[in-house]
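Worked Example 4.2. Consider the chain below.
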Amino acid sequence: MISSLLKCISCGKEFPLTEVRFTCTCGNLLDVEHDLSALKKKFRLSKKYFDSKNTTLHGQPSGGVWHFHEIVLPSAKENEIVSKQEGNTRLYQNRKISSWLGLKRFYLKHEGENPTGSFKDRGMTVATTQAKRLRQKAVVCASTGNTSASLAAYASEADITGLVLIPKGNVAVGKISQALAYGTKTLVVNGDFDDCMRLIFEAQEKLQAYPLNSINPFRLEGQKTIIWETLQQLDWKVPDWFVFPGGNLGNTSAFGKALHEAHQLGFIEKMPRFAVIQAEGASPFYQAFKNGFKELKAQKAETIATAIKIGNPANYTKAIRSLRWTNGIVESVTDEEILDAKSVVDAAGIGAEPASCATVAGLKKLLSAGTIKPKETVVGILTGNILKDPQIIVDYHIGKKGNRSNPPVEIAPSINEVAKFL
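Applying the procedure from the previous section yields the following structure tokens:
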């Protein structure tokens, strides 16, 4: 059997995959570490191997996360895998968005096309599979929306009890409705997201409920396939930049690990650069980046982009490692900049949640500053579906009226009135 284990990113201490553990005895985060040399030899892994591979799962043609089974969770047997055909998301090239940005070679990878509407499904399929392998009876998460929807769907699929902890007053209706519908018990906490995160640590320690937030290293194993899938879609040609939002920094951590492993396996010859975009009102990682990562100062997060409304990111240490691997940077954008970028993405017929559109807002800012050049190739990640925060759309176009608003117009019942708008 190929050796995979849990390894501390700080002190290097190792633990077996059979142990229910999310942090090292020293208190730092864990990686799922695979013996890449052994995997490469056993499966003859190469770009050609994955390009020619026809993946089936539970008797159906598959792809996405489990197309990369051999370097995600190679010891998992097919009958242990909990999957909803996640992944296989599209890579868009859109003239309207590229023109607004002033960037020719620009792609948008839309993770909102996953089963429950966000990238979280990629991580949840692997983490829930591991919970099932460990014979866990309950799974738990802290969530502002996307994670709760994903946990609920996968807990139901695995027939495991699910618990969702949501901060009061910060509920995305389009997402919490999924958690309720899928049968998970939803607990509204009188506190913020960081209070919910503290509770899930206690739930694991005192109640033996298996956490499925991004502190779970198996979550990140699924999320790193966003990068591998993108590289495969680009015929393994490495872009100059990957640009994406940062909240709890799980994707930042997973994406760096994906590229580091791809480079070690010989799938790519160079590393692209990262640009992590935070909302100005929830930007502890950006502030730490500006001070050379001397310290992380937790914030009371405040932004309309609920998916990244996090003031004390759990994956901070791993995210720093990813930036060092990729010579990455961090930028922040205002809520107004996010909403203007969202109006462009939505009007292109693609659509995404506000946190996703921080990607495009940040890219616009970095292009204006000259940090990213118009001739470079850029891949932006959209993390969630347009229906995540629908009231924000209504407020932007009708209520508060944003810079690019498109309000409805009342007319008389006359064809001549209609003709005015053609």
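DSSP finds 16 helices and 15 strands in the chain. Residues 241 and 378 are 5 Å apart (CA to CA). Compare this with Example 4.1 before moving on.
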